[in-house]
Amino acid sequence: MPGAAYRPVPLEERAEIAEFAFGGVAMACDWTGCLYLIEEKILVVSDLHLEKGASLASRGALVPPYDTRATLRQLARQIDCWRPRTVISLGDSFHDGEASGRMPDVFRSELKAMMAGRDWIWIAGNHDPAPPVGIGGTHCEELALGPLTLRHEPTIGLGGYEISGHLHPVARIVRRGKAVRRRCFASDDTRMIMPSFGAFTGGLNIREPAFGGLFDETSLVAHLLGRGRVFTIAGSLLV
User: Which has more pLDDT, 217 or 61?
Assistant: First the structure.
């Protein structure tokens, strides 16, 4: 998969990955919600929300605290697949400011094993503005990478090419009278918002007011994530 030749993907094609250029940078998104910068060998994920289940359970919510295990195992599989030199986590990597400190040792060891031998960058999120405790890696507010700016929250009016997370985008289409709703990468010519990678995170339809003014409708595209497939859909077909 990572060695596939770069090519643009026509609208409404389905494949294990979608390859495209954004800001002149060749990249691919896969069905799990990872973004891979091909020449730079950088893997980007967003909104892991590690320890969310444990955080909610500690407050009396009747939820199983197993999301950290599922998220880390899926992330490990994708790292083994893409074999990146660098991993960038686009904020809300941990569900709250204390989550990294209370994460069980077994999960901490799994995470450190993934980090070994590669650069790892934590971008500050609204849930985790401070660096993680006792885990390592580099922490920053945002990151400039060639023509790209990577940050947690999308920001209107700054110009350039932005990749962000935060809003957990999902897209909805209706075909033959049936509605389909999936996590997605939402993008136009200058902005991309990544889906949440965490196993226990919700999503917000990109037609909701929170996305108002973020995208140019004439170039909006959504890469919907299915089981083992990415479906690239024109923005005009989204409801």
Answer: 217
d(CA 213, CA 218) in angstroms, rounded, equals: 13
Contacts of range 98-105, beta carbons closer than 8 Å, 24 or more positions apart: 99/50, 99/51, 99/52, 99/54, 99/55, 99/128, 100/50, 100/51, 100/128, 100/132, 100/133, 100/134, 100/135, 101/133, 101/134, 102/51, 102/54, 103/50, 103/51, 103/68, 104/68
Give the sign of the dihedral formed by CA 212, CA 217, CA 221, CA 226. Answer: positive
Right CATH number for 14-237 from 2.60.40, 3.30.70, 3.40.50, 3.60.21?
Answer: 3.60.21
Residue 186 and residue 33 in contact, taking contact as beta carbons nearer than 8 Å: no
Cα dist. 177→43, 71, 173, 174, 224 in Å? 37, 33, 10, 6, 18
The H or E element that residue 74 is part of is: helix 67-82
Query: So where are the chain's domains?
Result: 14-237
Q: Per residue in 49-108, pLDDT tens?
A: 999 877 776 666 656 678 999 999 999 999 999 999 999 999 999 998 888 988 999 999
pTM for the full predicted model: 0.91
Q: How far apart (Å, rounded) are the C-alpha atoms in residues 227 and 152?
A: 26
